[in-house]
Structure to design on (495 residues):
């Protein structure tokens, strides 16, 4: 077998990180954590009850006064230590994230690299965001100060065990907040290592906490009055609910949801470059990423490009070239989705059902090879619903306007890309697509820092984006200060 993922050698028991100590939450039930590669148990995770959540938030709250009073430069120095530890532990984290999420090691490594980039941005805040002051009238100055919110929380999905938490906490913590991470219960092991590294970096107790669990744990965070802000990344149904519930509690909320991304391929696109980009986009992370291509809008005659995609997908090696599906339920949902599309009239050009990598250890894993459906119509489920797997639906359209019409009709608005060698076509898609992130000849148009990440419509609830300058605004309040140190009363209408 040509791929190597080092699964944990023994079952890892996850604990909560509370006030700098690793503790087993009281009266918590536990779930087994399975590796998608083998189906075997690699860990156990507690489902923290509301009492345990209150304990974590209490410890975080205790850290707030000291941490917010720590100068930004000192907070930044600790984040620089964490960044160094993150880099030094890259391989360990990559193998762990791959083991629990089913990614290839290279994909998991890329998630950590993106995390390092967010750290770099957080480290730069001390030089970029110096506040502002101005003499607004004779003898009177106005200035603004950025102030942390206090205790904030991040709730993250299974598909990026390192990267999505790292979208959030380097910035939130550097800006002076105490951050509580609630990782997905499907991938809790990587989060524990992130916690270990934060402790090792020397952050004061309670500045970074980990609380494990599922729905009930999230609800307790949503209802806790001491949690001032909540960032969520996950499916649209849950994002919508968390956004509504937490907003109703008066919290600042940003909730990123699911996606149904369109790749538009026009006849002038470069054949082999486009074919490989399409393949990488829908099979990367086994299609389990919110930026994955899901629908290919084939404009006019692009048959030679489609044939090339089919040929490349048929050759892709499971395991080395593409990872596994997170769990059995997701695999069954995907297989059912393919069968539904077939019944609705789609043709299966490449069928990934029943495919597995060769070799005994992987036999119990959750595998689906790349799958390509042709003849999908815009109203079919395969063109509308987020499948979240390596399934590409080809919808044939006569014109670019027809392609944009299909794209615009999607309730989601995460990403879209066009493949073309024509600048006017590219510009029409940049302007005409209804998404937060658009690509030109880029299959996975993830903005690099400091450009912020976030979709629109049903792919994001709340204002602003999760990283970059938008993140600085999300994790802070702006306090405006007006000063007068003179007894002069002339020349100003200000009292
Ligand atoms: P999910 O919605 O099932 O879970 C996300 C988080 O919410 C987890 O921590 C989970 O424990 C918690 N949760 C689950 N059900 C809940 C409920 N009923 N109430 C409260 N909390 C609940 O998502 P997932 O399956 O882990 O991740 C895949 C989804 O995330 C996909 O839809 C994908 O598109 C989306 N995603 C979006 C982005 C983005 O940036 N927009 C990034 C990554 C993943």
């Amino acid at each position: 077998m040509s791929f190597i993922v080092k699964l944990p050698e023994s079952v890892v028991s996850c604990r909560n990180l509370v006030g700098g100590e690793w503790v087993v939450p009281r009266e918590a039930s536990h779930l087994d954590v399975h590796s998608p590669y083998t189906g075997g148990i690699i860990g156990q995770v507690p489902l923290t009850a509301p009492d345990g959540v209150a304990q974590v938030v209490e410890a975080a709250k205790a850290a707030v006064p000291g941490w917010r009073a720590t100068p930004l430069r000192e907070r930044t120095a600790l984040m620089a230590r964490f960044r160094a530890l993150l880099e030094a532990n890259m391989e360990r984290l990559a193998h762990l994230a791959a083991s629990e999420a089913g990614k290839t090691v290279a994909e998991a490594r890329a998630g950590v690299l993106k995390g390092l980039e967010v750290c770099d941005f957080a480290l730069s805040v001390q030089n970029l965001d110096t506040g502002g002051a101005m003499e607004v009238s004779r003898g009177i100055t106005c200035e603004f100060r950025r102030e942390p919110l206090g205790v904030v929380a991040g709730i993250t999905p299974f598909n990026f065990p390192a990267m999505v938490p790292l979208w959030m906490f380097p910035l939130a913590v550097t800006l002076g907040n105490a951050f509580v991470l609630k990782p997905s219960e499907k991938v809790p092991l990587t989060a524990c290592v992130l916690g270990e590294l934060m402790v090792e970096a020397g952050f004061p107790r309670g500045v970074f906490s980990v609380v494990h669990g599922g729905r009930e744990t999230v609800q307790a965070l949503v209802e806790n009055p001491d949690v001032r802000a909540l960032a969520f990344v996950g499916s649209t149904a849950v994002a919508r609910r968390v956004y509504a519930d937490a907003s109703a509690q008066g919290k600042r909320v940003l909730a990123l949801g699911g996606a149904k991304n369109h790749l538009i391929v026009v006849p002038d696109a470069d054949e082999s470059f486009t074919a490989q980009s399409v393949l990488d986009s829908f099979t990367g992370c086994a299609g389990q990423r919110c930026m994955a291509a899901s629908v290919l809008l084939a404009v006019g005659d692009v048959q030679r490009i489609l044939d090339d995609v089919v040929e490349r997908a048929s050759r892709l090696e499971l395991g080395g070239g593409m990872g596994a599906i997170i769990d059995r339920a997701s695999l069954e949902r995907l297989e059912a989705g393919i069968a539904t599309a077939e019944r609705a009239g789609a043709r299966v050009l490449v069928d990934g059902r029943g495919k597995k990598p060769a070799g005994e250890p992987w036999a119990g894993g959750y595998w689906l090879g790349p799958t390509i459906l042709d003849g999908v119509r815009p109203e079919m489920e395969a063109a509308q619903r987020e499948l979240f797997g390596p399934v590409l639906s080809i919808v044939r359209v006569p014109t670019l306007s027809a392609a944009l019409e299909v794209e615009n009709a999607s309730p989601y608005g995460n990403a879209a890309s066009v493949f073309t060698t024509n600048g006017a076509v590219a510009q029409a898609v940049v302007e005409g697509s209804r998404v937060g992130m658009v690509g030109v000849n880029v299959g996975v148009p993830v903005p690099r820092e400091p450009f912020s990440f976030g979709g629109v419509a049903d792919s994001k609830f709340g204002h602003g984006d999760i990283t970059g300058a938008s993140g600085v605004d999300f994790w802070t309040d702006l306090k405006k200060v007006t000063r007068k140190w003179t007894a002069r009363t002339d020349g100003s209408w200000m009292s």
Observations:
- The radius of gyration is 24 Å.
- The longest helix spans residues 105-128.
- The mean pLDDT is 96.
